[in-house]
Design brief:
The chain has about 110 residues and is an all-alpha fold. It folds into 2 domains: about 1-35; about 35-110, no CATH class. About 75% of the residues lie in helices and about 0% in strands. The longest helix has 28 residues, at about 35-65. The radius of gyration is 17 Å and the shape is flat.
Length: about 110
């Protein structure tokens, strides 16, 4: 495992610990336990569809710029960007990280 990967994992764990310590986790779990299973399922389905469509849109945009992104990579990166954007203020950190991890140095022609 590379030093960069260890740093990424460490930062992710650190952010999760920071959120856990600063949030009222027991109250959040109580609220979640009162939710209707059908509503939770519908929300999960809607989030999944939205994420897949957003990843697809990102691939289309990248293709217009001469970049090729595998479907599995675009979905994985989009989920990661959503987690970061929901965890940190600003809403763009996940998008910047997603763009930074792409090999933009040598675009391919469509």
């Amino acid at each position: 495992m590379t030093t960069r990967r260890i740093l990424q994992i460490s930062v992710a764990i650190g952010l999760m610990v920071l959120l856990w310590v600063n949030l009222d986790v027991p109250e959040a779990l109580r609220m979640l336990s009162r939710a209707q299973p059908g509503s939770l399922g519908a929300a999960l389905l809607a989030l999944t569809v939205q994420t897949l469509l957003s990843a697809w849109r990102w691939r289309l945009t990248a293709r217009q710029l001469g970049l090729r992104i595998a479907p599995s990579q675009s979905v994985r990166e989009y989920y990661l960007a959503q987690i970061v954007n929901q965890s940190l203020p600003g809403g763009m950190a996940g998008d910047v990280g997603r763009a930074e991890r792409q090999d933009c140095a040598a675009p391919t022609k469509p």
